[in-house]
Amino acid sequence: MSVAVIEGREERITLRMGAGGRSMRTLIQEVFIGNAAHAAHAASAASAALPATGVGLDAMDDGAALPLGDQFLVLTTDSHVIHPLFFPGGDIGRLAVAGTVNDLAMMGATEVLGLTCGVIVEEGFRRADLERIQRSMEGTCREAGTAIVTGDTKVMGKGELDGLVLNTAGAGLTDRVVRDSGLRPGDRLIVTGTMGDHGFAVLAARHGLDLEGDLASDVAPINGLVRAVLAAAGWGIAAMKDPTRGGLASALHEMAAKSGVGILLEEPRVPVTSAVRAASEMLGIDPLHVANEGKAVLGVRPEAVDRVLAALHAHPQGRAAAVVGVCNDDTRGRVVLDTGVGRRLLAEPEGELLPRIC
Amino acid sequence: MSARLPLVPAEAEQLRFRDPERARALAAGLERVTRAIGRSPGSPVSVMHVCGSHEQAIAKFGLRAVFPRELDVIMGPGCPVCITDLPEVDEAVALARQGVRIATYGDMLRVPGTMQSLADAQAEGARIEVVYSVAQAVDRARASSEELVFFATGFETTAVATAAALVADPPPNFSVLSAHKYIPPVMEIVAEMPQTRIEGFLAAGHAATITGWGIFEEFVERHRLPVVVAGFEPLDILAGLLKLVELIHDERAEVVNAFPRCVTKEGNLRAQELLWRVFRPTGGRWRGIAHVPNGNLRLREEWAERDARQRFAIQVEELWNYAPPALSQECICGDIMAGIAAPADCRLFGRECVPDSPVGACMVSSEGTCKIWHQYGGHPDLRVSPEPKGVGA
User: Fold this and answer.
1) pLDDT digits (tens, 9 = 90+) for A104-121
2) Interface predicted TM-score (ipTM)
3) Which chain A residues touch B352 with a CB distance below 8 Å?
4) Is A300 a domain residue?
């Protein structure tokens, strides 16, 4: 029995609070934002924590945007733990670089000034693996047109962490900050490619599932793709978010809540590979709940939809892009899923995704 | 897992049964026939399905949003985990606490007993092993000489698998604690409940592949209620419901097989022979429902040495001096399983009772109504919400 719940308040950190859903947002709200605001208020020095005209911690966006002359300096940081470290389509190094580059891109900063990388290694870790991960990071940086400009390395005792933790931070400049809260009724939602590839590739690798068809992670930097879209549509892009942990479902919930709109998502329009579809049927896990690491969901003004689609389809990373949903003001804060044969509320994933038992 | 699974033909086959255009046509037919019966949303035509897989599909595909308002599709006692009775869970918990190794399906782990769930017992040191099939449990038994009890749950579909494992001469240290249930008798109970207004049943296609659809003829005769056997793809369910409301409209009490690609009248005779060679039907309580005559499947006398109840002295009494926690007294799982309440009627649903910390069995199992509703947005019925326009509009 769950004693903590019966007593009314969970006192310890659970895995659920790191899964990208509502529990995680609540934890961040309560522990980090609530306390930071309180401290800033007490010190009467709100400027650093909550920039007046930029984007700060309280926005819980993909990164921060600090005013710098007539531009914005976008900053973001991400810690990466993944099991297994090497999976079909990528590895933890590629994930760390792409994750940070993409977070910057989602704020509009598609030119990356540089990345930092903190490496924490467990005693006994194979040197050859570390070198392989380093090469992967270097290659991914080259794809994104950036480099790791500073770093830090720590070794911890055996059993003090599980293998390897990477932390990357990145900085970029942009003239215009794109938020994840800019949706208005009538805006269309576009995904830049197939959904669920990363999550299912990792799940299959983790559980040793041998499925016919190629499950491979989509992990990749997409700042080039986003640059092309912003060049084609400019202010026609109303909002951007990368549907990582929690998948498209979490990303849409967050965008709907922050923008104060309702979203209707049309499931048959969501591009999904047949390998992912088969794995999802077999494991009972929804591709909409599963992480992507090389995709974006874009909120687009209706008049810019054609230009955005044309720009996406012309780019090798955007061939499968599709309009998948529309914003409305009837169901504010809610995400309704049209399955093609019916409709229901789209739930946010909670907790670790595990293959169903029976 | 060694065998690679072929994808494409199966996928194409499956998508045929999810075709939006045919779904719309079936939904329109359902609306028309239901209207013709002439009810109001306040006293709808009420039909019941008795299968967690049906509820899964209905919720997952959002079918309740296209059901007519004058039609109420109720989920009955269709989750084998949920209807496993407290004393049955207690027997497994007691055996585990006595030091006997237990193998069972993962869904059973967190089902609350009187004092503890198997997961609680495990946390205190009892040895519980999660298996995906009875065959896996037999393999575990074979790997050592130590006693292993398979806590067997599920309807006739899984009971056949248990029977097959016993007939195949498992190692001598393998025995079975059967909590298997048999669906046909409980339909009688629900049909006779004074609170229910059930006018027809949607029977589970997979169970009928074993029993055959002919088994429902007697039921239909006795209760004058139509039964339609249906599959699990969205079009199967819509077509099955359409057939059912047509029968209600025409006042024809008949059995109709709407799943002919899998189900025959006589069913799988070899499976039936196996089932009844190993099991005998006996009366017993289903959690939250009632005493169901012939609703439990227990091992026959010939299999006594494989029957954990005969093989061990199970000391359940010590568990019964325990007062159940206050929250569980507010749980309305029983009414939900009997089809006279919905999860939304429960004060605990989505608040104190969530999948990570379930209060009642219906929030534990992937076939439980509460778990299913929670998984698909908490309130699967969108018929009262405004209709947002789609991308094409």
Assistant:
1) 999 999 999 999 999 999
2) 0.79
3) 5-6
4) yes
